[in-house]
Write a structure and sequence with these properties.
alpha/beta, eight-stranded mixed beta sheet
Length: 247
Amino acid sequence: MIRARFFRIEEQWNVIYLPERPSGFAVFFIGDNGMLVEKDTSDWEHHPEKNQFLDDLLSRGYTVVASSLYNRHWGSTRAFQLFEKLYSIVLKKEILNAKIHLFAQGSGALVALRFLQSHAKQVRSCYFVNPCVFLQAYFEQEQENKLYFKRLQKEIGKAYDLPPKELTSDKIKEITPQLTEGEIPPLSIHCHMQEKHFPLQTQSRPFQQQLAERQIFVNLRIHGNDKSFYKAVQSAFPFYKKHEVKL
């Protein structure tokens, strides 16, 4: 049975999953849009492969933390500020090493990037799965789909408190978090070859190249479509362990 503590910040539900034998290290999940945490459960428990990943982290002694971050957050400043508060509250409540591991999927990577802008020293490592790091590229990609595009404009407008009609490609670029100069914690990116939502060619690959230009070299692993979510995240375990040598 999973031991968990559910609590609210600004009416948003959050959860701390507690291992039987704590290692003192924490993994903060930053989910894609729509990854819900409710008053006594979360989507991390309901999706079989995500639940298996959660169980495996707990069995290795990790404290795992998750939040909805206003559901369809699209990496907004508001979602980041909630995540910032969540980090602060968890570190006060639990006996944990202050340097955390991040696990971000899809648009969750946008919140992770915001956190890295101002809290890079509090991050031990980052593990991204099919990340969205260039919101402008996704926005332009979805303009082809007229029906969904209007919904996307409304979602981003609501997340960023902007009128949907003001959301041009240039405006999206302006509000998207950018990694500023400075150190970046160890980063591992995992992307399925045929990922359609946030394709390798417009997201992970150019992000890797952008960092390489700054002499920051990250691991980019490309998985075949036969790879399940659970198989794709197996390397998270040795990756996190590798970056726990220095406390």
